[in-house]
Every structure is written in structure tokens, then in C-alpha cells.
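Long-time lurker. I teach an intro course on protein structure, and each term I like to show students one example going from raw sequence to a predicted 3D structure in C-alpha cell notation. This year I'd like something fresh instead of my usual example. Would anyone be willing to generate the C-alpha cells for the chain below so I can use it in lecture? Attribution to the forum is fine with me.
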Amino acid sequence: MRVTGTGHASMRIDTPAGSILCDPWVNPAYFASWFPFPDNSLLDWATLGQVDYLYVSHLHRDHFDAKHLRDFVSKDATVLLPEFPTSEMEDEFRGLGFTKFLKAPNEQVVELPGGLKIMIQALTSPTDGPIGDSSLWVEYDGVRLLNQNDARPTDLSVFAELGHVHAHMLQFSGAIWYPMVYELPQAAKTAFGKQKRDRQFDRTWRYIDDLKADHVFPIAGPPCFLDDELWQFNDIFGDEGNIFPDQSVFLAEYAKVGGTNGIVLLPGSVAEITTEGATTTHPQPVEEFFANKVAHLEEMRERKRGVIEAEKASWRHPEVDVLGEMKRRIEPLLDESIYLAKGVGGPVRFDLVGYDGSEVESIVVDFPGKEVRSYADEKVRYRFRTERALIEHLLHIGEVDWVNSLFLSCRFSAARIGQYNEFVYAFFKCLSEERLQYAEGWYDEHERAVDAEDITLDGWVVQRRCPHLKADLSRFGIVDGDQLTCQLHGWKFDLASGRCLTSVGHKIRAHRADAETPAPAGEAAI
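-- Reply from a regular --
Happy to contribute to a lecture. Here you go:
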């Protein structure tokens, strides 16, 4: 099995039975904020795009690059579709001219012509990607590969049960706006960023240990930030709180925990993988490339400056009545929302900075009141500040996912009173009837579900599944005194009270192992 690195989460897998191109991303994403690093735009995409199969893990724009898919990937390729809850991905592909699809049943091995086998695991929580994320398992002639990319499954046993994996590709770096955009003192940002950076690596080590593959390939990050306004987000300033470490940092950190089987793929690197080992060739020495990272970034910044300026020129739409359009689009969804609206629990304020950089219009999305209106000087728990032009653009194009556009762009600042609230971001990625109804149904189903199984961790009896996204706490749970951390997403719980310390809601069931089991709610202990 031959794997060619094509940048970020992208790779081309070649076997005698066919080729698969995965997640090709080349063009800037999220309001021209994110670019692939190392740069992959100079690869021979006309050749790389001539493949038998195409797999895109999810609709995040650093994975689903519509322009590149339209212009460079063969329309004769069969698209391997994860079993997602909505038809959006297939609809997007059809709009780009693709007509051949294989809808892979979730977690079922499918044998393709010539003996090539694949299995796709689809994750379908509203917080997984833009309504869904996935991983691809591939086998040919006894060689097995898992392309986990960004996905965060609760366990990898479904893949391990299919046989020993020889190549494991997975994310290790950040792909979020936290904590950089929050209006906090720099010392607090650094502390929170360091915590997140450590959690990212801890999660990665856990996945690597679970699968025990022969070779580990760090992929799906980090992006680089070439706009002067965002340049500080690149991990080139010695900031221990930067959440975007690169592949060379991965190798160094992996070595600290005993990891010796890591392989970096630069764009154009080729790994020949067999059951006996892996041989890799690179377009230039990996160590030398990362030693000159700043120079590479500065060269990219100058080369892409015109691209960024052209994108910025397209954002302003002064003809858009922002308040009126937000009312028209969002109020019907507020009327239908039960779980998300209740979860947000209060008004969310958007401060929109005008073209001159000084005038500010404040608009409130009032979840309890089910309306969008002008700000009336009331106290709000959640506030976002961004350029009016960005919201104009979102409304102009009818964007249904403000997370997969505005928030991931990092072109905003945020403030909140109290804990993180996942429902705020879940709602703003569900600005369509189809997405909202799916998310409401998912939360309804999980609200009613009872997790009856308990486990014992360091003197505490706790429910086995994390209240957040059902991670197995027997594997991801770490107890420190009276506090439990789920390492899959870093959520924390106070075991004495059951209270979630990370977000609103999500109470955990727990008691000390040497204490009497508490009675169910509403019943007296006997």
C-alpha cells in the first residue's frame, strides 16, 4: 500500500486494486483565515485527482474544499459516503458534478472490486464536525490503514477487531478558536491554551495506545494563518499556550512518552507500507523543513497576500439589512427549538463593527423570548464581537453553519459569564430546518436515555459513559481527588456533587466506593 502525503488531512492511497484520495484541501478556508501547512498548492493536482475513489471525512472546509473538488478531482471517481444523518454531503458532491456514490453502511466492511476493503465509521452527534465526522479503514492484501483524521470516536475497538493495523493517521493539533478569541488577560489565555495543548496530546497518546499500530502518522493540522491580523496564531513565538503545534513538535512530545514509530508526511512524501514495515521518501528532509518554518511561512504570506485581499473585497454587502435578515432566518428556528433554546438559556449578543472600525450595532438573539432584536442594554451571558461585513456575507450566501465559517475563522472575539455552553455553538451550526430538527431529535433521544452501568475509578463509583458525548470513562476517565476529567474532550466533573465544571448541564452520577449507594432521585434510602 502506497500513501502519498498531499497536505493537512489529505492523502492519496494507492493499491493494485484502486486508489483513494482523502480530504483534499488546498484553497483558504473560513474567511481566508486557514491555509494548509506545509503548502500543498504546488503539487501536481491534475495527476493526483485522477483516482478511482474519493473520501471526504466531513464537511468542515479544511476537508471539503468545494473549489478544488470541482476543478481537480475526476468526476469518474466513486465517492465513499459516510452514513450521516442528513443528505448534505451527497447533495454538495452532486452539485460539484459527482454522480457515482457508494453509501457505506456504518461500521460494516465493504469489499470493492479487486480485493480492496473499506469500512467507514460515522459519528453523528450534533457536536461532531458540521453534523457528522468519520474515519476510514482500508485493507488490501493484509495491509491495514486507519485514517482517523479529526474524528474522536469513543473507542477504536471496531477497527482493532478487524486485525492489526499497520498505519494509523490521526489529528494531534488544535482546530478551534479557544482560547485565543476570548477577551481574557494574556496570562489566562496562556494558561488555558497550555491546558488545551496538553489535553490534545493526551488524547492522541490514548488513541495511539488503544490501536497499537506499527506506524503513526500525525495529520489534520495544524493550519497556518497568513493574514497579518491573524499571524500571531502561528506556533512560532515560543508560546506554551499555542494550540497549533506542528508535526515536528508532535515527534518531540511523542518521544517523551516513549513513541518511536512516528512518521511525518510532507506534501509529496511517499510511504510504502507493508506488513513488515514502512519505507518513506520525502521531497526534502523533514528536520530541515521545520527548522526553516518561519521562512516558509513568510514566503507563503507574501505569495498568498493577493488571495486574502481578494477574499476580503467580497465580504461587504451593505444592501443587506442585517437585523431584518437575522430575524427572518433565525426566529422561525427559535420557535421550533426546545432543547437547544433551553440549553442556551439566555440572550446571545452580537456586536457588529462597521466598515470604519468604530460604529457598532448590537443585535441580540433572545432564546427565551424566541426573537432577534436590537440590544436593549440588558445583561447577557454570551457575547460575540466581529465585523459587520462577515455577518453580511453569511446572510448574503445563506450560510447555514456559522461555526463552519465565522467561528472557525477566529475573526471575532468572545466573552461569557460562567461556563462553556455547547448549545450556543450547536444552535449556530444548525441554521436550517433539516439541521435543527436533527439536533433537537438527537438531544431529545439522549435526554431520555438512562446510563445504568457503573464503574469504579480510584475510589469513586461513576457512570461508565461520560454525560457529554458518551465516552467510555473506564478508558478516558482520570480521577484527581474529587474531580474527574474525561480525556476525550477534556470535560471535568465534581464527583461529590456530580456537577459538570466545564459546561452547563451534563450532571454525572457518582459516589464514593466506600459510601452507601445513593437512592434514585425521588426515593428515600432504605
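Some talking points for your students: The radius of gyration is 23 Å. Confidence is low (pLDDT under 50) at residues 518-526.
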